[in-house]
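Need a sequence for this fold. Nothing fancy.
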């Protein structure tokens, strides 16, 4: 059984040039990373995106506080957890936050770590990421709907 050795986060930039969080999870001699860029939606029921609003260096958009949270708190809580037990990993992250809209840790922080764990699990198993998801019998892939050119509004 592969166990998480440590989780490391850093501030990186998304495709729009905004700071975002990247989490890297380590197990034995392997690692996998994932970033959680911000979305354009800002509805009242959206999961909370944790940012350093008081830090004027990046116009309040930096994620240095969430990075520190991963490097100190989350890394310690996930150390020695089974890399393949995604449900347990996510449960630990959700309980650490303890809020409905993820206002304590930030959904961006939780998602970056969760996605990195899933990617590392596939890497350890030596399978493609898509094969690392449970697929039920008679499963059909949904048809994606993308709205890129007109800015996302509905007609």
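Here you go.
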């Amino acid at each position: 059984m592969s166990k998480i050795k440590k989780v490391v986060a850093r501030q990186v930039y998304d495709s729009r040039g905004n700071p975002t969080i990247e989490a890297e999870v380590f197990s034995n001699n392997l690692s996998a990373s994932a970033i959680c860029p911000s979305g354009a939606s800002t509805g009242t029921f959206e999961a909370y995106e944790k940012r350093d609003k008081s830090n004027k260096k990046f116009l309040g958009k930096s994620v240095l506080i969430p990075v520190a949270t991963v490097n100190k708190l989350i890394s310690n809580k996930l150390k020695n957890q089974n890399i393949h037990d995604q449900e347990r990993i996510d449960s630990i992250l959700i309980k650490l936050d303890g809020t409905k809209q993820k206002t304590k840790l930030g959904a961006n922080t939780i998602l970056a770590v969760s996605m990195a764990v899933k990617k590392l699990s596939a890497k350890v198993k030596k399978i493609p990421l898509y094969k690392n998801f449970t697929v039920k019998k008679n499963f059909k892939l949904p048809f994606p709907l993308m709205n890129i050119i007109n800015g996302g509004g509905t007609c």
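For context: The mean pLDDT is 87.
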